[in-house]
Structures are given as structure tokens and as C-alpha cells.
Design goal:
Elements (H helix, E strand, L loop, with lengths): L2 E7 L5 E7 L3 H10 L13 E8 L2 H12 L3 H8 L3 H5 L19
Antiparallel strand pairs: 1-2, 1-3
């Protein structure tokens, strides 16, 4: 059975990251929109789907959900826009980073 991880932008501008089994992302989004399950998005509607990724196993989707939840807002937004350089940049040690806006000293 397939699974997916998804990210929603809430009406207050915050992000919600979740995962679910099955093949119906539309159904899960409708549940968030309707407030079917009490929780984070219930009082932050409407929500907009901004990212989704499919996995063969639920354990992989849950692992990705947990990883994304630990990311900064900037890194989540880089994932949404598929800016892979910015997704990878915050993951590097500060001493190994080269600013994307400033050239490195050796340039």
C-alpha cells in the first residue's frame, strides 16, 4: 500500500506537515478543510496543499514527515519551490557554508 507526506499552508501562514496511508490525497485535504479531525489545522482553515510526495511504504513517509517537521521555515519554503540548493544549504555545517548571496573569499 502506498503512502504520502504532505505540507499545507494554513490561513495564518504557518505550515502543517503530515503523512497518511492510501492513495487519496484529495480525501485527506478535504478532511483538513472540513475540520473533520480536531488538531492543528482545525482553527487555521482554509488550508492549501503546497507539497506532496509519494512513498511505497508508510514508514518512509513517516520518516520524511519527521525530517521536514524539524526543518526551518526557510528550508520548508525551499522544498515547496523546489529550490534544491536552498534545501541543501541549511543542512551544511556553518563553517562549510558558502553564502548564496555573497561570493566566497576565494572568488
Amino acid at each position: 500500500m502506498t503512502a504520502f507526506v504532505y505540507m499545507l499552508r494554513c490561513a495564518d501562514g504557518s505550515y502543517y506537515v503530515g503523512s497518511a496511508r492510501g492513495e487519496s490525497l484529495d480525501r485527506r485535504l478535504a478532511e483538513h478543510q472540513a475540520g473533520t479531525h480536531a488538531g492543528y489545522t482545525d482553527h487555521r482553515r482554509p488550508v492549501t496543499l503546497v507539497y506532496a510526495e509519494w512513498f511505497d511504504r508508510i514508514t518512509d513517509a513517516i520518516a520524511m514527515e519527521r525530517r521536514i517537521k524539524g526543518w526551518s521555515r526557510a528550508k520548508k519554503e525551499a522544498l515547496i519551490t523546489e529550490d534544491w540548493d536552498r534545501v541543501q544549504f541549511p543542512a551544511k555545517r556553518p563553517s562549510a557554508r558558502v553564502s548564496l548571496s555573497h561570493p566566497s573569499p576565494s572568488s
